[in-house]
Structures are given as structure tokens and as C-alpha cells.
Design brief:
The protein is an alpha/beta fold. Strands 1, 2, 3, 4, 7, 8 and 9 form a seven-stranded mixed β-sheet that branches. A two-stranded parallel sheet has the order 5-6. Strand 5, helix 7 and strand 6 form a beta-alpha-beta unit. Bound molecules: aspartic acid. Aspartic acid binds next to helix 3, helix 7, helix 8 and strand 7.
């Protein structure tokens, strides 16, 4: 009996030395809760996406995935923390398109958006909607654009920091219209939405995950969506592209990241839990009610995300440069 066990232990150690992948397969990760960084304020669209995915991933991984919000500086504060964390699978992040805009806007960025992260997979591409406080006189999108041209720098808009999706959308719109509305920055568009409801500024361009319910309840006015196709949860809103803004298109893609250097088995478990979440009927249903859907499984992979990010960094860099935008 004793001999058998010694043989087994010796055999196991020998296998781990000769085949490191065998050692990796033995890890019992995760043995404690996992911190999921959301580099934007609670209650906003990234937070909404992250919490839905976290709930499903917790069930698959058998440990709680706990969302931590750290908004500010267009998400770069939270992502800097993730880049500096131990690559052990206990710190991961859900962030979005702003990860691709950061290098063009923040010259003092302390991390490399591609090489300091493990890219786990894309989650969803969220359309955006152009909205206003109900007191703005424009009743439809063409009236809104006329009003923006006329009022120009008297118009105020909310955004989630330089480089955020809400910032980018308004940057593109302002450039097209040749106007200079004044931006009001927040740590995320969750708090920005509260202030829009409180008439603290005029307009915002933000994800349908943060605007759909308020538009439907008549608390804010919705004018148009930023995708080329209509959004099924907001059927009355035309795409900006179908009117005077031909070619206008922006959506906020979200993805899952970790600090660079995760052990292979940890990566595999996280990617599997992500893939399961994206097929989870609860996630699919809730996404649909908010105007979005999970990306197809082949995009929710490390290779597909890395390739996408590598293409998005120069793409947005050119838009930002053409618009003359500067970070902090
Ligand atoms: N929606 C924000 C943005 O404009 C971020 C957030 O609060 O989730 O990028």
C-alpha cells in the first residue's frame, strides 16, 4: 500500500518534470474569489455587461467573480492596476474600445495595451444611441443636428473620460458637424446618465445598455443609433448613417483581459467560462433586451481578441489624430 503510493507520487513528479503541461493540468484554480476590474463607474454600461458575464462565469468556475469598479482617466487607472497585478487568474478585467484608444490619447500611459495583457476574448459589440435631456427642443435627429449647429459651443455633452466610447462618438459627430460642444467628464456614463436625468447637461451618445430603458420610459429623448443597422430594442430610432450622417458608425466592443502571463490551464478555464457565459440564456436574453448580443464563439478567443485590438489601435489612432483630440 505504502509502496504503491510512493510509486504514484514519484510517477506524478516525473510526469510533471518531463511534461510541464501535465503539471498545469493539475492546478485546481480557482480556489478563491476572482476580482473582475471594471475601469468605469458602477451602474454604467460596461458595469452592466461585466456583472451579467461575472454571474455566469461564477457558476462555471465554482468561485465568485466579484466586480470592482475603478473609473477615471478614460479607464486607464483601472487597466494600469490590472497590468500590474499578478498573472494568476485572480485579477481579470472587462473593458471596451477605450483600451484601443488609450495609446493615442495618453502619452504617459504606464502600460502597453497589447503586450502587457493576456487577451481572453471579446464579449459583445454594443450599439450606441444619441440622446438628450427632454428639455432640448429638437424632436428628431435632423432637428437635433440643426440645433447643435446653431447652439454650437453652448451645447453640453456628458462622457466617460477622454477616449471612452461616449467621448469618441461625440468627437466624430462634432467633427462631421464642425461644432465644438462642451464636454462634461465622468468616471463612467452610469453617473453621467443620472446627471442627464437631472438636466445637468444637454446630450450624450452612449451604449444602448445604458440608454434603452430610459428612452422607453420617456425619461430622456432618443434620436438615432450609431450602427448601420437598426437596433431591435429601439425600433423607432433610425441609424445616423441613414440620414445626413452617411457613413457614420461606431459601437462599443467589450472584452475580457488579464495581466500578461497567465498559466495555460488558467487561461483555458477562463476562456471556457467566458464561452459558456456567452451562450447562457440569461445573458443572451438580458443582452437582447438592452439592444445587444454576445459575439459569435470564434471571436470570444484570445487570438481573435488580440488580432482585433491590434487592428483597432491604429484605426482609432487615425480618427483621433484627424479630429485633433488630446488626452490628459
Ligand atoms: N459607457 C462608458 C463609455 O462611454 C463607459 C462606462 O461607463 O461603461 O465608454
Amino acid at each position: 500500500m505504502r509502496l504503491d503510493r510512493r510509486v504514484l507520487v514519484f510517477g506524478g513528479l516525473a510526469a510533471m518534470t518531463l511534461f510541464p503541461q501535465f503539471a498545469a493540468a493539475q492546478s485546481n484554480y480557482p480556489t478563491r474569489s476572482i476580482a473582475l476590474m471594471v475601469p468605469a463607474a458602477a451602474g454604467g454600461p460596461t458595469d452592466t455587461v461585466a456583472r451579467l458575464v461575472a454571474e455566469s462565469m461564477s457558476r462555471t468556475l465554482g468561485q465568485t467573480v466579484v466586480v470592482e469598479n475603478a473609473g477615471g482617466a478614460g479607464g486607464t487607472i483601472g487597466m494600469a492596476r490590472v497590468a500590474a497585478a499578478a498573472p494568476d487568474g485572480y485579477t481579470i478585467a472587462v473593458w471596451h474600445i477605450a483600451h484601443a484608444t488609450a495609446p493615442s490619447l495618453y502619452p504617459a500611459l504606464k502600460y502597453d495595451v497589447i503586450n502587457d495583457f493576456d487577451h481572453l476574448g471579446r464579449i459583445t459589440d454594443v450599439p450606441m444611441a444619441l440622446v438628450s435631456r427632454t428639455g432640448v427642443p429638437a424632436q428628431n435627429v435632423s432637428e437635433l443636428l440643426t440645433w447643435m449647429r446653431r447652439e454650437n459651443d453652448k451645447v453640453t455633452y456628458g462622457h466617460a473620460g477622454v477616449g471612452s466610447a461616449s467621448f469618441l462618438c461625440m468627437l466624430m459627430l462634432s467633427k462631421e458637424l464642425d461644432v465644438q460642444p462642451r464636454g462634461v467628464g465622468y468616471r463612467g456614463t452610469g453617473p453621467a446618465m443620472n446627471d442627464l436625468l437631472g438636466n445637468q447637461f444637454d446630450i450624450m451618445c452612449d451604449q444602448t445598455t445604458n440608454t434603452t430603458n430610459q428612452i422607453k420610459e420617456g425619461k430622456i429623448r432618443g434620436y438615432a443609433v450609431t450602427t448601420k443597422a437598426k437596433v431591435s430594442s429601439l425600433p423607432d430610432l433610425p441609424p445616423l448613417d441613414s440620414g445626413p450622417m452617411k457613413g457614420f458608425e461606431v459601437s462599443a466592443w467589450h472584452a475580457l483581459w488579464a495581466p500578461k502571463g497567465l498559466p495555460k490551464d488558467v487561461t483555458d478555464k477562463l476562456v471556457n467560462a467566458l464561452q459558456v457565459a456567452l451562450k447562457d440564456p440569461k445573458v443572451v436574453e438580458r443582452f437582447a433586451s438592452l439592444g445587444t448580443e454576445p459575439v459569435p464563439a470564434q471571436l470570444a478567443t484570445p487570438a481573435a481578441l488580440k488580432e482585433h485590438l491590434a487592428a483597432e489601435v491604429p484605426r482609432w489612432g487615425a480618427v483621433i489624430k484627424a479630429a485633433g483630440a488630446k488626452g490628459e
